[in-house]
Specification:
5 strands, single chain, mainly alpha, three-stranded parallel β-sheet, two-stranded antiparallel sheet
């Protein structure tokens, strides 16, 4: 896809600002709860423009404010916990349009975790290209269910580990395999998109 597509870059910048503000709000909530974490510590730990809750948890563990990442989420950072702050969001339709405008393929991530299967037909009408059928937290039954949905709507299949760094002291990357036939279909679909330049 075109990584210089300005409308996409503008929205990414807005989301990055939103994520950084979210960290500040989480840290402020933790401070009120007696956890003396600093936002700068989290930003240094993240070393990126899009920090998230895992970075907060890691910073807390590194600073010995909590015993483990799981404990940080269970006590403070999960939805409904005292330091949870909602994310900046956009509509699925806007996301599909942005992705297509930059020459990309719009794929619904880990639907087995989203529990929003009822919106798949509407997303297909909006231009959804594919579904992530294979995922670290998808059971075999879930993957088979989404493969059936993909077949029904003529969508593409993707898969991935959803690796955000270390999980239980090892990275998840490479733990989910995608049959190569699906990779070939992704390449073929990409070449059909008029917004893609120089597609092999």
């Amino acid at each position: 896809m075109d990584t210089t597509h300005q409308p996409l870059l503008d929205r990414i910048a807005q989301f990055q600002t939103g994520r950084q503000q979210r960290i500040r709000e989480m840290v402020a909530a933790l401070n009120k709860l007696g956890v003396p974490l600093k936002a700068e510590t989290v930003f240094a730990m993240a070393n990126c423009k899009s920090p998230g809750r895992p970075h907060v948890a890691r910073a807390m563990v590194k600073e010995r404010m909590i015993g483990s990442l799981d404990e940080a989420f269970e006590r403070y950072l999960k939805k409904g916990r005292p330091a949870w702050v909602p994310k900046t969001k956009m509509s699925a339709l806007e996301a599909v349009e942005l992705i297509h405008g930059a020459g990309g393929l719009a794929v619904m991530a880990h639907p087995g975790l989203n529990r929003t299967d009822e919106i798949i037909p509407a997303l297909v009408k909006a231009g959804l290209d594919g579904i992530e059928c294979f995922h670290t937290k998808h059971s075999t039954a879930m993957s088979e269910r989404y493969l059936e949905i993909v077949e029904r709507y003529g969508l593409l299949v993707t898969g991935g580990s959803d690796c955000h760094g270390f999980s239980k002291n090892k990275p998840l990357i490479g733990t989910v395999k995608l049959p190569y036939e699906h990779v070939e279909k992704l390449h073929a679909a990409r070449k059909k998109n008029p917004a893609v330049t120089g597609a092999p």
